[in-house]
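Many introductory courses stop at the sequence. We go one step further.
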Amino acid sequence: MSKNNLKKIDIAKKLSEKKGFSTLLAKEIINDLIDILSSHLKEKNLNFKNLGSFKIIKKKERMGRNPITKETHTISARKSVSFTVSKKLSKLINK
């Protein structure tokens, strides 16, 4: 894992510094926000203006192969989350 990854605790510390909350309260806010967003995403798509959109995609069952041992196995059907970045955020990143 890279040291450049942003973790929940890092976000909580930044929120704490910026808004004057305790780090514990900031962690609770972030955890509650994640719970709310994930429960909403289970029901329908989730769109954030100027950030992007999340949607659930259904993947079918398929055959997979271990590249080292060449052993094949079945990958079960499952739901996955897809994120599409907004044009505005994309432009900001590519400046």
